[in-house]
Amino acid sequence: MHAFIEPPKRIPFFLKLGILLSEKVTGKVMLPARILAWYPKAAIGSGALEALVAHADGRLDRRFLKLVRMTASVAAACPFCIDMNSHDYRAEGITDEEAASLRGDFEQVSTFSEREKLAIAYARAISSTPLKFHPDLVERVKSQFTEREFVILASTAAQVNYWARLIQALGIPPAGFGE
Predict the structure, then answer these.
(1) Averaged confidence pLDDT in the chain
(2) How far apart (Å, rounded) are the C-alpha atoms in residues 142 and 135?
(3) Exposure winner among 56, 164, 168, 179, fewest CB in 10 A?
């Protein structure tokens, strides 16, 4: 499977450095970055967004934010995002049962904390179309998370949604992180 368009034959040097770094870190050809080289402003903006994503912050540890990214990926139905954001989930202490439940009824999984269940529900709401936030859900999230955590939760799920829409609009297939 191929993307809708091919990357440019010549990539500006300053973008090539970023692409090579991201490919060294991931061990994969990063087709999204290569295709974005057609429009360097989009490549730079997207790269900055990706570079600044939260991976752990206070009580929002790596497991917690991985669950948010996995949930948003599944909810947005983005094969590339699911592949990338679900890669190596066990290393973050996420069980197979927990990972599978993100596609369905996560509420019944006893190993999720109440905060994790709330974050999963909110990440689903952020990733649903049309966007609709039930006041009860918002109030429950506000009661369990600080303002900083609220912003990290929302921005993490929104960042996945940005990539999901962009990657699917460009027809980019999964990179094979799960292989």
Answers:
(1) 96
(2) 10
(3) 179
